Amino acid sequence: MDEVVEVPLPSRCPDCGGGVEETGVVSQYQTEIPEPRVERIEFRIHQGRRCRRPVQGRHPRQSSAAVGSAASQLGPRAVALATQLNKGLGLPYGKTAAVLEQGWGLKVSRGGLCQALQRAGRKAEPT
Question: Total domain count for the chain?
């Protein structure tokens, strides 16, 4: 149980207006979807040079090694949800992008979503 809410008796009966005497406590259960919360992660990528070639660190949680104009990426859970909405449930890219924005505030274009799903598809291809 994530939360317990006590619901006290009213001080007066809503029908007769008389005082109310407590006779017990019963439980009611409610299952709820948690509040959407976007997790933003900044990867501070250290860069250097070796043999006249640029070298940079890579973390396993990074969805891409891209930096610069392509430095903002959807994470794997966002891509998984978008894939389920688009491929599993048949939502078009525009509506999938709208669900991500309305539900979680993630702003992604249809084209960006299409590219993210194509990348995910390539990773899922048999080797």
Answer: 1
Residue 25 lies in a domain: no
Give 97: exposed, middle or buried? Use CB within 10 Å, 0-12, 13-18, 19+.
buried
Contact present, 19 and 11 (Cβ < 8 Å): yes
pLDDT the model gives residue 36: 82
pLDDT of the residue at 71: 62
Tokens of 94: 């525009």
Stated length of the chain = 127
pTM reported for the whole predicted model: 0.65
Q: Which residues contact 77 (CB under 8 A, 6 or more apart)?
A: none
Kindly tell me if the per-residue pLDDT of 55 is higher than 90: no
Q: Is residue 43 part of a domain?
A: no
pLDDT in tens, 65-74: 777 766 678 8
In terms of residue numbers, what domain contains 94? 67-124
Q: How many CB atoms lie within 10 A of CB 14?
A: 7
Per the CB < 8 A criterion, the answer to whether 10 and 21 are in contact is no
- In a domain? residue 82: yes
